[in-house]
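Subject: DUF4440 domain-containing protein structure
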Amino acid sequence: MKKYLFIVLLVGFGCVKKPSDDLLKIKQLIIHDYETLSNVDIEGHRSNVTDDYILIEDGHIWDLKDEIEYLFKPTNIKRKNEFEFLNIDINSKQGVAIYKLISTFDDNGQISTKEWSESVVCKKINGDWKISLLHSTPVREEQHHE
């Protein structure tokens, strides 16, 4: 009886879902990709995205070339990013992450903060996760109409 109970417990504990390696890799990919933006690391960014990558930012639709021309400009402003991951849904070849991003900018002592609600579609290509689509919406202060 003890032998069977041990087997049942062993099998049962083997079925407990652990945070997947893919979930952690997707989170790390997103965080790392924002570091490439903060550090103006174009090649690092290119290595994080698919060939057909698209950015939808505040109503604009950009491919990789457009994004690099607009966003990757040398700057002395320091940027720190904080993420609040709300959901990550993964199947074998695709993942979707939804999160809030808060970025703090330091421009020679002038501190400002911006917030975004974002979603990312990632594809698994040759065993590596890449960002295929980033949809970013700035969070604006509520306007009260009277």
